[in-house]
Amino acid sequence: QVQLVESGGGLVQAGGSLRLSCAASGSIFSINPMGWYSQAPGKQRELVAIINTVGRTNYANSVKGRFTISRDNAKNTVDLQMNSLKPEDTAVYYCYANMVGVQYWGQGTQVTVSS
After folding, report:
1. CA–CA separation, 106 vs 95, rounded Å?
2. 82: phi then psi, degrees, rounded to nearest 5
3. d(CA 31, CA 56)
4. Edge-to-edge strand order for the sheet containing 2-7?
């Protein structure tokens, strides 16, 4: 079993920044990839950014140039630096990890961007 614990959400004004962090613990073996998804009220959960063990990244078009994902393979952590935040970024953000084909999710952290 793998547990994912997120931190760093909150309320910020448009144009501001937040940094989300996620730490994986438990019986960990080869987590690949790790990343972040978001779910706004009334919408489906969607990919924000994902990163594999060699640092290859994939971003949603809506966050390219504003968000940066990074991970520490030794510590089993993944971070999401969110800059130039917009009201439409408001959502619950979930940490994601795939370990040998099994998907794991964090409990979610709320990000609210006010206009």
Report:
1. 5
2. -115, 115
3. 14
4. 2-7, 18-26, 77-82, 67-72
CA 81, chain centre distance (Å): 9
**Tokens coding 3:** 């547990």
* Mean pLDDT (10-residue bins), the chain, 115 residues: 94 98 91 96 97 96 98 95 98 96 96 97
How distant, in Å, are the alpha carbons of 3, 30, 32, 47, 99 from that of 27? 9, 10, 14, 25, 10
Q: Judge whether 90 and 16 are in contact, CB under 8 Å.
A: no
* DSSP letters for 30-79: -EEEEEEEEE-TTS--EEEEEE-TT--EEE-GGGTTTEEEEEETTTTEEE
User: From the CA atom positions of the chain, what is the Rg in Å?
Assistant: 13
